[in-house]
Amino acid sequence: MDTFTRGSMSFRVRDAGPADGTVVVLLHGFPETSRAWDAVAPRLHERGYRTLAPDLRGYSPGARPRGARHYRLDTMTGDVLALLDAARIERAHLVGHDWGGALAWQVTGSRPERLRTLTAVSTPHPAAMAWAVRHSTQAIKSLYMGFFNLPRLPEYLLRKGIQRDGLRSLGLPEPQRAAYAEALLEPGALEAALGWYRAIRTRPLPKAAPPVSVPTTYVWGRHDKYLGRAAAERTARYCDGPYELVELDADHWIPEKHPVELAGHILARIA
Q1: Is 156 a catalytic residue?
Q2: Are strands 92-97 and 50-54 parallel, antiparallel or unpaired?
């Protein structure tokens, strides 16, 4: 399958690997696209797994509704379920990085019966994140989110920055960096991608959340500039099922820079 739909929206999806393999859904973050998994997915295919990597809401040209309320995580849970339904998959392994990780936590907490396992990459449990914002340096690390909530200015400056250096300043490697830059310069793409941040105002980070019962691995890079140790270590409190924290000698861009290590930890969890 190349696309799937939810209502009037159409999403691109990269469907690869053995057609009869157990499905692993791969959710990207900001400013990524499904290309984030280019070096991870083939290693899963080698072990007999089929991967479904969508371009998420805001990143697929046919799924860019206007308004922050359309980018709430509880709303976008339905996008992941629509993908599973379109592929006729009852239960899948779920992997998410950055905002894709936040969405993966949301899906896991609200619809655990649709999942086999969770591998969250970089992104801690949302309640752990909320605690860390109040009790650690996480608030400082997250200041850029406040900037992204300003009207129009972030789009203007980000577009200028992308046109100038193609996201090089973020430390992203080629060839994904070029693919991300091209996608964000599509009409309406930057506004839509920033909608994920602006939706926080409509549904703040929860101070408490039901525990996650799905077997879970959390992969975190100790040099991550955006997501700190306090939330990483506290995430275990919100996982009742089998759980492992994996700390890598890595920064935020784990799928792009450490695909072999990441694929190994995903396989260890789903196997």
Answers
A1: no
A2: unpaired
Average pLDDT (196-222) is 87
> Is 197 in the active site?
yes
* Whole-angstrom distance, CA of residue 23 vs CA of residue 87: 9
Cα 27 to chain centroid, rounded: 5
The residue from 93, 97, 252, 265 that is catalytic is 252
Tens-digit pLDDT profile for residues 151-181: 999 999 999 999 998 899 999 998 899 999 9
Query: Is 252 annotated in the active site?
Result: yes
Token pair of 210, please?
């039901």
Domain assignments of the chain as residue spans, ordered by start: 3-270
Write the CATH number of the domain with boundaries 3-270. Answer: 3.40.50.1820
Gyration radius of the chain's alpha carbons: 17
Which bin fits 17, alpha (ψ -120 to 50), beta or left (φ > 0)?
A: left
Catalytic residue among 49, 197, 218, 238: 197
What residues does 121 pair with on adjacent strands?
Answer: 97, 219
